[in-house]
Amino acid sequence: MRAWIDGRLIEDAASPAVSVIDHGVTVGDGVFEALKVVDGLPFALEAHLERMRRSARGLGLGEVDTALVRQGVKEVLSAEHIVLGKVRITLTAGRSPLGSGRFDALTPTLIVVADAQPPAEPTTAAIGVPWTRNERGALAGLKTTSYGENVLALEEAHRRGASEAVFANTQGHLCEGTGTNVFYVLDGELRTPTLASGCLAGVTRALVLEWFGGVEVDAPVEVLEVADEIFLTSSSRDVQPLVRWNDRALAPGPVAAEAQAVWRRREPELLGL
């Protein structure tokens, strides 16, 4: 695993490299993107950079130096060829006081790290959790490093034999998983929650809607109990059908299979720096 931090390539990504008073470390004050890597090339880099810009503005981190980000991505992917993996780009508020406040002048920290990862399983299981997403919260729709809720929810999923946990929002509407967007088929129609639900504007989610189709609908989370098909989307899972939702068994259906076929055909279009 190679890392690149503020213009410097680090041979050992596990070595000390970030200040102990970096706000990303002390309070989770940062944003990030995680991109799929195929045969040494990042997938959908432009879309991820655009979302990172939105997240950074929303968190008050200012403008992202995308040229510098590209340099970091290029260097870590050039250092070691990755057949299939992930590159993660993290931008924090940098050195700050030991509390929620920031210094008046930000000195952001930019980190890029890449590593190999195995292919996602062809199918998976997911559960609902009692905690909610706040669709009106300050971080709604931003991809921030504040992932404590996700960690706890994912631990619960693993405890119950699933790979993902799904949240409702404060209105009881289906929202998102800890690191995924959720699609489902009802009455022959492919649906996914609207961005107003508080879910993240997933890059894979947007591409499925663009390349394959579907409608954005806000509905109670209980809709998954009667859906004909359910699948998850993310940069590491692509399109991944569920074979179990809570205690309900499901079979991978034709809609998910068609969406997967479209994805495989079009994915190469967005590979590259």
Features:
273 residues; alpha+beta; D-amino Acid Aminotransferase, Chain A, domain 1; D-amino Acid Aminotransferase, Chain A, domain 2; 2 domains; 6-stranded antiparallel β-sheet; 15 strands; 24% helix
Q: What does the model show?
A:
With 273 residues, the chain is of the alpha+beta class. The protein is built from six helices and 15 strands. The chain has two domains: 115 residues, Aminotransferase class 4, branched-chain amino acid transferase, N-terminal domain (D-amino Acid Aminotransferase, Chain A, domain 1, 2-Layer Sandwich), CATH 3.30.470.10; 145 residues, D-amino Acid Aminotransferase, subunit A, domain 2 (D-amino Acid Aminotransferase, Chain A, domain 2, Alpha-Beta Barrel), CATH 3.20.10.10. The strands form two sheets. Strands 7, 8, 9, 10, 11, 12, 13, 14 and 15 form a nine-stranded mixed sheet that branches. A six-stranded antiparallel sheet has the order 2-1-6-5-3-4. Strand 8 and strand 9 form a beta hairpin.
